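Input.
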Amino acid sequence: MSENTTPAPAWAKQAGRAGKKAIPAIVVDEQAASASDTVIAVVPKDFNLRISSHEILSLKAGVHNMPREQAEHWYSVANGVKIHNAE
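Output.
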């Protein structure tokens, strides 16, 4: 190795495949959502949401009481879920 060459960082050696990144699992932490943090959510269409226990919730279109964390999850929002404010 010449003196002007710097070694690759440890993370690059561990990756082993240049340009390839691991895709993280998208889950909702059920334990973090408490019963007191339940909201009324309007679900416009059926979709599935994987929760932290690796179960798949099959949400049906309609109005539901659900944990705020599930209603505000990016995948729920992408599927059109809106939180109803009872103010």
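The chain has a mean pLDDT of 75.
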